[in-house]
Amino acid sequence: MTRFLMGTAALALSAGMASAEYTLHILHTNDMHSRIESINKYDSTCDAEGEAEGKCFGGVARVKSAIDAKKAQLDNQNVVVLDAGDPFQGSLFYTTYKGAAEAEFMEQMGYDAMAVGNHEFDDGPQGLADFIEKVSFPVISGNLDLSGEATLNGKVENHVVLEVGGKKIGVISALATDTVETSSPGPNVVFQDEIEALQADVATLQGEGVDIIIALNHVGLSKDLDIAEAVDGIDVVIGGHSHTLMSNDDDGTPAYPTMVGDAAVAQAYAYTKYLGHLTVTFDDAGNVTAASGDPMILDASVEPNAAFIERIAEMGAPIEEMKTRVVAEAAEAIEGDRSVCRVQECPMGSLIADAMLDRVKDQGIEIAIQNGGGIRASIDSGEVTMGEVLTVLPFQNTLSTFQVSGQTMIDALENGVSQIEEVKGRFPQVAGLTYAFDASKPVGERVSDVMVGGAPIDPAKVYGVVSNNYVRNGGDGYGMFTTAENAYDFGPDLADVLAEYLAAQGPFTPYTDGRITVK
Asked: 3-313: what fold?
């Protein structure tokens, strides 16, 4: 049995129990994003027909079954279950229950620890605090100073020590410092450098006699690899945030695990589609001698947990009518995958931007800009339900209209393409405006050929712009919009705007039209 212990007194219980070789099984998830129900191949909610045809994946009922099956297969010996953050945000279950559904199911799934993800702050510190009160497992993040945030002070641990099979396993954690731009932690949550904070926590644990250390991070794979190289004493990094599939069966993915020196780095995609299973063997001194595994795809061959299915149906009843209401029709699948919409023009991005601009074009608005990170799923061909629309746009963002100079708009586009190498959510999908960019050029000098209404943008002219309230208020690095003139952030919900625009199109045929040129 796994349990978590804190403090040197607890650690002393297992002193002197080391053996010549020790193998640990790490079962892990990340970025579940409220996929309480199963998902289709587009990562949005699957339907009963899809389940009947065996075309669905994931959902917490399958994750529960997979965890239980793995534990039984391993005779529950030396098994730890970890989540690398972001169970929040992404479906009507989060919109309706604000983390309570995720807490209820994760509690029963048997997690030993969870990292704080950026979306855990989407409803401010109180939303995370409410979640923590509902679970018995520790929720950790080592680079947050919460001393000035009363709702969270003392509730989020820097690290935790798990006793697993007589061994002390230290689990440390870091959250991406740009969470101040990607979510709503508020002014009292202070972020510290990830590497410095993790190194300090390693030192603390080593001082307490812990010689096996896992970094359970929510920073993205690129940063995880940097951390594995820079922080002495980390044996394993279990990550999230970048939604990376690491696999040994696909040449297009990083190896699972990827070794950085003696440290094993692993991540298991997102949206409950996979359960990671990393097997790590340590010598008597706590050094990694072997690491292997692969994520397990949770397809139709995994029978969902019956009790979970019953509870999901019960919780879903109040929102079923809204979710199943058909609002439009798509002649073809509408691409909204993050791997596309965060690096180039994508059909869903153009659609959303066009819908925004259409809604306010009679208000003197000329330009629409939508952050790619706000686009969370694709839509399949055929009938489009409100549930599908809300899976694409789950954040309850409202339309924001404002006025800025042409130069400010250029600055905004430069911000949008400034982190394209990391596939960041700030990438700008647009309407009423066209632009080109060259990612090989220095940040701040990548954007060119900006046109508005077919004419070159005038840096001195004032333009009317529509975006969502998150971007207008500085989210995803768009701080240049916070001082915009005549800002109004309380327009209609963006999901409603998209649904109504789609409905007016008849069967909608997705498109890209060259409004964004990659040089």
From this structure: Purple Acid Phosphatase; chain A, domain 2 (3.60.21)
